[in-house]
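ok so i was messing around last nite and threw this chain in just to see what happens. nothing serious, just curious
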Amino acid sequence: MTAPTRGDLTSETQIDVYWTAIQANSLETGGSPIDSYNLQWMIKDSIVEFEDLHGQDGDYTTIT
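result:
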């Protein structure tokens, strides 16, 4: 999977993120289906602390 990129609509109050979806049942997934994408935000420039923005805690979706 390639790294996500910031879209032009990103501002102080919203983020606009684009990424290439992983193909389900591919070598990249080990032949498994994709249940969800989990988008995370890095907290205060930390390399170890992230906040879930979408796709975690039961809000499973493959919407990209």
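not much to say yet. The mean pLDDT is 76.
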